[in-house]
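call fold(seq) -> tokens
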Amino acid sequence: MLVLSGSTEAFAKREAGGKGLNLYLMSREGFPVPAWVVLLPIVVALAGICLAYYMYVVRPELPGVLAERIRPVYLFVYNKWYFDELYNFLFVRPAFAIQRPMVGARSSRSPYLNACTSVRATSS
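ret:
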């Protein structure tokens, strides 16, 4: 865990080749961490906030134009990278295919549910 208050020590260190000066921060555990590792997430987050403000407040027509311009990428991301379809194809369908002969051809539900529906159907 990095501490950015009182006990933080910043120091400069030359790499083995002597080219360039790198700024490091000392972590609480006592090992040096390059300053860019700490600063990069903050910079990226601020850039994202500024971009969102520009796109949705300053120029609200821009997201629609951008979505039309890169439609295949937009649809791929909008459909969650088709992860659900891939999961269904790789895991759900094979599980039903394995389960169906074990349960019987009555339904693709579990034996417990089949028993409950059979009892309910005969009692009414």
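The longest helix spans residues 35-58.
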